[in-house]
From TrEMBL:
Keywords of this entry: Fatty acid metabolism, Iron, Lipid metabolism, Membrane, Oxidoreductase, Transmembrane, Transmembrane helix
InterPro entries the record matches: Acyl-CoA_DS, FA_desaturase_dom
Protein's UniProt name: Acyl-CoA desaturase
Membrane association type: Multi-pass membrane protein
Length: 314
């Protein structure tokens, strides 16, 4: 049986070559370290249980990270699906940074390229990159989930894909301060755990659950949108790609798993537009809008939805 091979990576406009060292760094930081962190966390607290304090700290850190990615990095900064006041924009960008998925300019550049070439040559992370049959799809899923961090020999050139973000002094400052955000992502839960419990032990368990375990879980939950929600699930709307709706991914990602409509209308602030599709991120944006902090929100357009529905039926 022959091994499925990936279609050769085309020299897409707006990409630059990535060195082996950098690809190895991506693999370590985005895949290997979170898993080692999880293993270390389990080993350290094994048999000692986990208290309600750690659960609360980990849940809050999880929510901040996921909302930061979904509402901040993705809907606000990558797709500009709403505008907001400067303090909120900075807060959402920082929250996205706490998820440890890289500086926002890097994240947004790869993601804008994903939308332009979705599931076609040029898409940085399509599960269909190796072909359609079972074995090829299995490889494709691994590639879309985490493999591309290492195998992609070209990465999106920020000057090409995110000139708007590079022109924003706040974003440039946050990019430069990214190492501080990374440190804060671990120090914050540790400090809260230590102060809340008044003990070193409380600091350590909060660091493990709210820092390390949350780091691993948030990554794999987010990457599921790229792998699972381009492979399984319903497709209500016509798109040129294989984006789909997967309820459990949507639940864990606060709405990002309703991925089919997102590809049908990427600048729309709500991804879960069908009946019963809970989209926590859209609800948060609505709250910001009501409070007067967010404006020019692009809510779903019923005419566009009807048109895309009939495209899917064709
Ligand atoms: Zn997608
Ligand atoms: Zn998107």
């Amino acid at each position: 049986m022959s091994t499925p091979t990936r279609r050769p990576e085309p020299p897409v406009t707006g990409t630059v070559a990535v060195s082996t060292g950098r690809r190895t760094a991506y693999l370590l930081v985005l895949v290997v370290l979170p898993l080692l962190a999880l293993a270390a966390a389990v080993a350290v607290v094994w048999g000692r249980g986990i208290g309600p304090r750690d659960v609360v700290i980990a849940a809050v850190m999880y929510a901040v990270s996921i909302f930061g990615i979904s509402v901040g990095y993705h809907r606000l900064l990558t797709h500009r699906s709403f505008r907001c006041r400067r303090p909120l924009r900075i807060a959402l960008a920082v929250a996205g940074g706490l998820a440890l998925q890289g500086p926002v300019t890097l994240w947004a550049a790869e993601h804008r390229r994903h939308h332009k070439y979705a599931d076609r040559p040029g898409d940085p992370h399509s599960p269909w990159a190796y072909g359609e049959d079972g074995r090829a799809l299995l490889r494709g899923l691994a590639h879309a989930h985490v493999g591309w961090f290492y195998t992609a020999r070209r990465r999106s050139d920020r000057r090409h894909w995110v000139p708007d973000l590079l022109a924003d002094p706040d974003i440039r400052r946050l990019d430069a301060l990214y190492p501080v955000t990374v440190a804060a992502s671990f120090l914050l839960p540790a400090a809260v755990g230590g102060l809340w419990s008044g003990s070193w032990a409380g600091m350590w368990t909060a660091l493990f659950w709210g820092g390390l375990v949350r780091y691993a879980v948030v990554h794999h939950v987010t990457w599921s949108v790229n792998s699972i929600a381009h492979t399984f699930g319903d497709r209500e709307f016509g798109t040129r790609d294989r984006s789909s709706d997967v309820w459990w991914v949507a639940l864990l990602t606060f709405g990002e798993g309703w991925h089919n409509w997102h590809h049908a209308d990427p600048t729309c602030a709500r991804h879960g537009v069908r009946k019963g599709q809970l989209d926590a991120s859209a609800r948060l944006i609505r709250l910001f809008e009501r409070a007067g902090w967010a404006f020019d929100v692009r809510w779903p357009d019923p005419r566009r939805m009807a048109a895309r529905r009939s495209q899917a039926a064709d």
